[in-house]
Specification:
The protein has 413 residues and is an alpha+beta fold. The protein is 56% helix and 17% strand. It has 2 domains: 183 residues, no CATH class; 183 residues, no CATH class.
């Protein structure tokens, strides 16, 4: 028998015991689904985070409160949180920092606000950010319409707002983009005039750039100051070649502002955007290894179940094996037949598991704001693992079947 005939024979055996085959197939499918689903969601979230950070540019870094970054508390070390960065400190830094670079000041006011226009309103999941005139450039945001916050508006404070795309779609369903400009919206019963609309940004994990509003920094201090724990400084050097010098100068200036004694460790952090990308890749790689290990344990259980089913199949088909051997089938033919049958069951379960895994992984990712992806690498891993599981599960039952004595097999009832 050639391989095609063995595969055909395997499908005939599966159809003969369809319920048992389906149950066995589902064991494999759920194991592969768990593996592919977890790895797909990790890849999608990592890709979304990386693309959002990359949009800031490789010549950008942030000055932030110590312990507030992604690297805080890594490797089992105790997380040390520095003093908050005050408004006086960030404005002092912006004035004293003389390196040729663009400095932006921003602050988080709320992550659970509602934006209203007449009878339309958003869900209470809108992020309110206070920003200066340089924020859009440094953070990598663009404008779909309207204008930026001016220097005077940032320093004096006016009730103006720049809206994210998802917000305008929700509260201005029948307005053209240009007609939205100049309209009045309310946030916490405070009226704001729309002066700009952000270009579509996308989302990553729990932050959605299209569900964000920007208001002048002083306006944020007036209405949301009590909720602002710490101010953010972002610096964009003219090129990546200037980045190290810009960071060294920034650290020296900010240490002076924070009055950090010479020889004492800084109580703030400087983080490059490409450094954050590397950190994300490093952390997700560890999670991926853990997910693969968990998936392999699940597949081990599936392999044991499949081996048990194949042993039962050998026992039930003892007489059939005897007939095949009496007609000239060799041990090798019987061995290959049962191995192929185990691999076919595994591959069918694997295909179902891969489809379910992609749907489950992207379903989780869509809830977190990530993009849909097809994980070809993990699909290849799933197919390979199914072959391996099929061979491991089928080798012992196949050997047992191939060694059966044809005379004794024909007598079996």
């Amino acid at each position: 028998m050639n391989l095609a005939e063995n595969i055909q024979q395997a499908f005939s055996a599966i159809r003969a015991n369809i319920l048992r085959a389906i149950l066995t197939l589902l064991i494999i499918a759920f194991g592969i689904m768990a593996l592919v689903g977890i790895l797909t969601s990790i890849d999608a979230i990592k890709g979304s985070l990386t693309s959002n950070l990359a949009s800031m540019g490789t010549n950008t870094f942030n000055v932030m409160r110590k312990g507030s970054g992604l690297s805080g508390g890594r490797n089992g070390r105790k997380r040390v949180v520095g003093d908050k960065i005050t408004y006086a400190q960030v404005t002092d830094f912006k004035e004293r920092y003389q390196y040729p670079a663009v400095v932006s000041i921003s602050a988080l006011g709320s992550m659970s606000s509602i934006v209203k226009h007449q009878q339309e309103e958003t869900n209470p999941n809108i992020t309110v950010y206070g920003a200066d005139e340089n924020y859009l450039e440094v953070a990598g945001y663009g404008l779909a319409a309207g204008r930026n916050i001016s220097t005077a508006e940032s320093e004096i404070g006016r009730n103006i707002v720049i809206l994210g795309q998802a917000i305008t779609d929700k509260i201005f369903p029948n307005f053209s983009t240009q007609n939205i400009l100049g309209q009045t919206v309310s946030i916490r019963n405070i009226s704001f005039t729309v002066v700009g609309i952000l270009a579509k940004k996308g989302s990553s994990m729990t932050f959605n750039g299209d569900k964000m509003v920007l208001i002048p920094l002083q306006t944020l201090r007036k209405y949301f100051g009590s909720q602002t724990n710490s101010y953010n400084l972002s610096v964009m050097a003219h090129s990546t070649l200037d980045l190290d010098g810009a960071m060294a100068t920034a650290e020296g200036v900010f240490r002076s502002i924070r009055r950090t004694p010479i020889g004492e460790e800084s109580d703030f952090e400087l983080q490059k955007s490409d450094g954050l990308i590397s950190l994300i890749v490093e952390n997700t790689a560890t999670i991926q290894i853990a997910a693969i290990f968990i998936g392999l344990i699940t597949l081990l259980g599936a392999a044991i179940g499949l081996m048990n089913i194949m042993l039962v199949s050998v026992t039930e088909r003892t007489r059939e094996i005897g007939i095949c051997k009496s007609l000239g089938a060799t041990r090798r033919t019987i061995l290959i037949q049962f191995l192929v049958e185990a691999v076919v069951i595994c591959q069918l379960g694997g295909l179902v598991g891969i489809v379910l895994g992609i749907l489950a992984g992207n379903g989780v990712t869509s809830q977190l704001g990530g993009a849909f992806i097809i994980p070809w690498a993990w699909i290849g891993l799933g197919v390979t693992l199914c072959v391996v599981v099929g061979l491991i599960s089928g080798i012992y039952p196949a050997l047992k079947a191939s060694k059966l004595d044809p005379i004794e097999s024909l007598r079996y009832e």
